[in-house]
Amino acid sequence: TVHSPMSDKEKNQFVTLSRREVASKIFPDYDSRKAVSALTRRIQQDPILLARLLKRGYRPRMRVFSPNIQRVLQKYIGY
User: Fold this and answer.
1) Whether the Cβ atoms of residue 79 and residue 63 lie closer than 8 Å to each other
2) How many alpha carbons fall within 13 Å on the CB side of residue 22?
3) CA distances (Å), origin 31, targets 12, 20, 26, 49, 66
4) What is the pTM of this model?
5) Number of other residues whose CB lies within 10 A of the CB of residue 64
6) 64 φ, ψ to 5°?
7) Handedness of CA 35, 38, 43, 49 (dihedral sign)
8) CA angle 71, 48, 74 (to 5 degrees)
9) What digits encode the pLDDT tens for the residues 34-70?
10) Residue 12 has pLDDT above 80, yes or no
C-alpha cells in the first residue's frame, strides 16, 4: 500500500489560531469580544500561567497563538 505523508495539520492537533478563535474555544458561551477580554484577564491574573506562556513566546498584545502557546492554555485552562 502507498502511504501518503501526513500533513503538518494531521501531525499536530494544534494549528496557529487567532486570539479570538482560542478565546472563543475557552469561553464558548461568551461573544468573541467578551471571550478575548476574559482570556486576557485570566492570563494577567495567573502569574504561573503568564510565566509559562512567556517562555513559549507569548506577548500580551499578540493576535495569533502558536501551537505551543495553545498547549499551555489547554493545560492550565482547558478547552
Assistant:
1) no
2) 26
3) 27, 10, 11, 23, 22
4) 0.79
5) 12
6) -125, 145
7) negative
8) 20
9) 999 999 999 999 999 999 999 999 999 999 999 999 9
10) no
